[in-house]
Amino acid sequence: MMHIGRMDAPVMSKTLSPNTAADALAPRERVLQTAMNLFYKHGVHSVGVDRIIAESGVAKMTFYRHFPSKARLISAYLAAKDETWQQLVARFTGDTSQSAFDRLLSLFDALEFAIIDPGFYGCPFIKALAEFGPERDEPQVRAQIHAHFAATEKLVNELLKQIEPRNAKTLVQPFLSLITGTLVVAQATGGVEVARQNKEVARMLLSR
Amino acid sequence: MMHIGRMDAPVMSKTLSPNTAADALAPRERVLQTAMNLFYKHGVHSVGVDRIIAESGVAKMTFYRHFPSKARLISAYLAAKDETWQQLVARFTGDTSQSAFDRLLSLFDALEFAIIDPGFYGCPFIKALAEFGPERDEPQVRAQIHAHFAATEKLVNELLKQIEPRNAKTLVQPFLSLITGTLVVAQATGGVEVARQNKEVARMLLSR
DNA sequence: CTCGAACGATACAGACCTGTCTATATCGAG
DNA sequence: CTCGATATAGACAGGTCTGTATCGTTCGAG
User: Residues A172, A138: contact at Cβ < 8 Å?
Assistant: First the structure.
């Protein structure tokens, strides 16, 4: 349920000494890296496997050996994006010696950190939610998307219950709105100041 | 700049008396209606013109007479979505006899009205923003998307300047975050209560 | 050294994509 | 009635999509 990718992990079969520099990665990692960039930038439905295969410099059969279908590659892409996001969140809000108040506010520092990256093009899961509508196909992908939002909701809910147990229920979704809205507004405007401003708004909401 | 669609508007060439009921519309309107539903539900890139032509019961040449390319149809789709949204906003916030405070809060009633519709699948422009990344193609479509967000920002900014002129600048993007976040959270969770909760949050922010 | 697994290169199948073309039918205006 | 505009029906071109198949090569393990 957690790991979508394979476990065999050839990672470094040949080229024991790093050859050139760029293409020294194992084929599976080259494919995944290329897919990460292209899927995130252009959307999963606008990028075909042919392009990923060409730009990753891998044979088609090698691609299909590691990812039996495009849907599996999309799953691996979302799983990797989720993992980096969870690590970022843990880095900013994981210090349990801090107060829940500070930890929740630090979530907006994590947003700013993500947004300030020049390679930021919006939240991958909001974009994936837009590309996979209420169809019945690709249930695996849809499950990953919802799991991501559920995890964020759980974190916010637990922190809010420590801060303001009485108003936690009515504040969870507003905080989720503020978080997702930060990412959408940053994507639409290209600006980065929205994260800091929303952090102050969050502080006000918690300090009534 | 405003109108993307054609002006000729055949609308009712024949069938002066409404024939059956459903397919009594002019071909152009049938195509646009079908495209509205399919594009909004499945995303513009997942739906081909062949399907729109088939489901609208129109000949291919008729389609291409009214919409010289798929991009033009997407433009017409977004223009129509924007028009209905602007009408909804005007209906809820256009009463200038009310206070700017009440008008801005009414915007969240408009959101609730939109979300409560069983055919709600998220904000068409957030979804379009996700499907049209930072590419250089389709500049017309990208311009429409940004014009939509700019219009919302302008409205919020003008209302905020009347309510709290001193803090308007730092509140515009938080309010835009709250608005877009409302739509994303409603899409992701399927719930409708987020609109009301965010309205109360907005009230708190304006009543410090 | 030999065998087998992984990889590269490329051709191929069948479906779908956008957009064009031809031929025909209908209907209102002059 | 005739003409022109608009509609239908459907074939077609050229490209792209996902996924499979074929043929070598490379390289490490036994």
Answer: no
Kindly state the tokens that stand for B113. Answer: 């009205």
DSSP letter (8 states) at residue B96: T
Per-residue model confidence as pLDDT tens digits over A27-53: 899 999 999 999 999 999 999 999 999
Distance CA B65, CA A46 (A): 26
On whether the CB atoms of residues A77 and A52 are closer than 8 A, the answer is: no
User: What are A74-115's pLDDT values in tens digits?
Assistant: 999 999 999 999 999 999 999 999 999 999 999 999 999 999
Long-range (24+ apart) CB contacts under 8 A made by B159-164 are B159/B93, B159/B100, B159/B103, B159/B104, B160/B100, B160/B104, B162/B100, B163/B100, B163/B101, B163/B104, B163/B206, B164/B206
Which residues interact with strand D by a CB < 7 Å criterion?
A 13-14, 16, 47-51, 60-61, 64, 68-71; B 8, 10, 13, 26-28, 57-62, 65-66
A70 CA to D22 C1' distance (Å): 23
d(CA B165, CA B163): 6
Three-state DSSP class for A57?
coil
Cβ atoms < 10 Å from Cβ of B176:
22
